[in-house]
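Appendix C reproduces, verbatim, an entry submitted by the partner laboratory led by Prof. M.T., so that reviewers can inspect both the input and the predicted structure.
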Amino acid sequence: MASSQMNLQVVTPEGVRFEGDAISVRVNTTMGEIEILPDHEPLISALDIGVAAVRTPTGQHTFAMNLGYVEVLDNHVELVTETCEEKAEIELERAKTACKSAEEKVGAYDGSIDSEHYTMAKNALRRAETRIEVAKIR
């Protein structure tokens, strides 16, 4: 018999950020965006920086996600990520300030000479842009 829900857990180094039943989970992986529905095949994939949209029986939750991984097994979905912020936690003006700062850092590095620092700056910019995107969702 097909399940109509699955258990979702969002975990960061600070602890469990979200736990509950979900109807669908949409995340960005390094291979592209995926949507996980009940009875999904087992899966482990690397998470990319981006928006995670979770539909629950009681509504919608939107998160700004950092790098990490997603594991799906037996109607249990676990998102393990470096950082995660739910829409209500994001201060738009602070996110815009972080975005400007990250843009300046990206401009300060030459990716062909200092690829490590350039990649770190680009990831900081992507995180800031994601936070702004999530904050603006209605």
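The mean pLDDT is 93. Additional entries are available on request from the coordinating office.
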